[in-house]
What we know:
This protein has helices at 17-29, 54-60, and strands at residues 4-11, 33-37, 47-53, 66-71. The protein is of the alpha+beta class.
Amino acid sequence: xxxxxxxxxxxxxxxxxxxxxxxxxxxxxxxxxxxxxxxxxxxxxxxxxxxxxxxxxxxxxxxxxxxxxxxxxxxxxxxx
Length: 80
């Protein structure tokens, strides 16, 4: 079984929900798991969070429609 990691995949402006659907399907078919879609509803971000096999991650990196991919994690803030 391939190792996996949790990532946020953000697409460039102008990428449609249908195109993002296609990428989400490919991630799932590769053994990943798309958790949250950010382009639907409030439209926070044009992308999704997913667990992605490291063997498939290279297929997404450098893709012309993807703006960036970053590790997903907890962010905390501290008031001054």
